[in-house]
Amino acid sequence: MGDVAPSTQPDESPPAREAAIGTSNGKTFVSPVVAKIASEHGVDPSQVTGTGRGGRVTKKDILGFIESGPPAPAEAPAAAPSQPTAPAPAPQPQAPPVPATAAAPAPAQAAPSQPGESFEPMTAMRKGIAEHMRRSLDTSAHVTSAIEVDMSKVSAIRAKLKKEYEASYGVNPTYLIFVARAAAETLRDYPWVNGEIRGDQIVTRGYVNLGFAVELQDGKGLIVPVVKNAETLNLLGMAKAVTDIAQRARDKKLLPDEVQGGTFTITNPGGYGTFHGTPVISQPQAAILGTYAVVKRPWVIQDDMGEDVIAIRPIMNLTLTYDHRLVDGALAGRFLRDLREKLETWDESAY
Questions:
Q1: Which of 310, 314, 311, 277 is nearest to 295 (CA)?
Q2: Beta bridge partners of 27
Q3: Segment (H or E) for 80
Q4: CA gyration radius, the chain
Q5: Which of 1, 165, 180, 223 is deepest in the core (most CB within 10 A)?
Q6: Please, are residues 61 and 50 in contact by the beta-carbon 8 Å criterion?
Q7: Is the distance from CB of 321 to CB of 147 less than 8 angstroms?
Q8: What are φ and ψ of residue 332, in 5° steps?
Q9: Furthest-apart CA pair in the chain: how many Å?
Q10: CB-based contacts of 150: which residues, under 8 Å, 6+ apart?
Q11: CB burial class (10 A; 0-12, 13-18, 19+) of residue 58?
Q12: Can you name the residues that pair with 33 across neighbouring β-strands?
């Protein structure tokens, strides 16, 4: 380089010589003209081989580099575009809301106890009930129909039998017993209401296994014991079976077989005064019957002359929640109508 510099120096024009500036602190400085050209074309002057005194970059050097120099810078930017293409897939991993998933448990963990709150772990029974209820709603197309029943005849017969049943058999002929007996009889004519969907098949039976939702004594759970072949029981037999199985359920003395195999369920929240509800079907059954409080209400009846008159009658609401995949509304309506007919025209000798 020491030999080349003298030979090139005479070729440098006086303006270029004036424009060239020396080095200071190890950095090569360029003239304002060269710096302006380099800035306009995005060229780093330090990448240009200078032919001026001491290796300085002249105007001729920078212009020549711009005309023939892109190959070197072009490869550097070539790597740069490859980097943007690499991040391009990066949005794909971000598309699934991974942070959102992590954020989901955060509210539960981040929610500290508030003043007055207390916590207790869910029991195995409560977890089982929760899972079964959720699965039932996810499985069946729940629809509920309701009907009002004049329980005058049942009420009169019940008053007549109550003392005898309690004294001789130790059982109370509650309204639930009458409804259960009438339901078992009605279900024989409605096999689909007593059936189930199993795969792509409709299962029907020639028997009725009635399940009864029973609240446990601590009030923190329920169990559904089953009265097998309920269609074979008369009113007294139904009263004995239901009383026995409900008591053993509360005492936690049921056998495994006694909580399995139900084909239709009855729930009785009416014992607490409620008059309507939409029970959840016990899978894999097709329906569940809700019985509600007997309430004295003004009721339109016909007198002996065939005239409409208002009388006070004991009225019970019944609901049938059914799986609309199998049971249509018309079928459910006919079932409730026939059940009401049996209750309103109760024949003591027939039951």
A1: 314
A2: 24
A3: helix 71-85
A4: 45
A5: 180
A6: yes
A7: no
A8: -65, -40
A9: 141
A10: 299, 313, 314, 315, 344
A11: buried
A12: none
What DSSP line would sit under 176-242, residue for residue?
HHHHHHHHHHHHTT-TTTT-EEETTEEE--SS--EEE-EE-TTSS-EE--EETTGGG--HHHHHHHH
H-run or E-run covering 296: strand 287-302
Angle at 250 between CA 245 and CA 256, to 5 degrees: 60
- Whether residue 186 contacts residue 338, with contact meaning beta carbons closer than 8 Å, is answered with yes
Backbone φ and ψ for 210, nearest 5 degrees, come out as -85, 125
What does the domain layout of the chain look like in residue ranges? 4-82, 124-350
The 8-class DSSP code of residue 50 comes to P
Q: Are 176 and 291 in contact (CB under 8 A)?
A: yes
Local structure of residue 318 (DSSP, 8 states): E
Q: Are 176 and 158 in contact (CB under 8 A)?
A: no
Would you tell me the crossing angle of helices 175-187 and 235-250 to the nearest 10 degrees?
A: 110
Q: pLDDT digit string (tens) for 168-219?
A: 999 999 999 999 999 999 999 999 999 999 999 999 999 999 999 999 877 7
Instruction: Residue 236: name the closest of 169, 291, 175, 159 by CA.
Output: 169
Catalytic residue positions, numbered = 324, 328
Locus of tokens 């208002």? 310
Residue type, 310: I
Joined together, the tokens standing for residue 335 give 């079932």
Helices (H) and strands (E) in the chain, counts: 13, 12
Are 284 and 198 in contact by the 8 Å Cβ rule? The answer is yes
Crossing angle of helices 32-40 and 59-68, in 10° steps, is: 20
pLDDT tens-digit map of 53-111: 777 788 787 787 777 755 444 444 444 444 444 455 544 545 455 444 445 455 556 57
Adjacent-strand bridge partners of 62: none
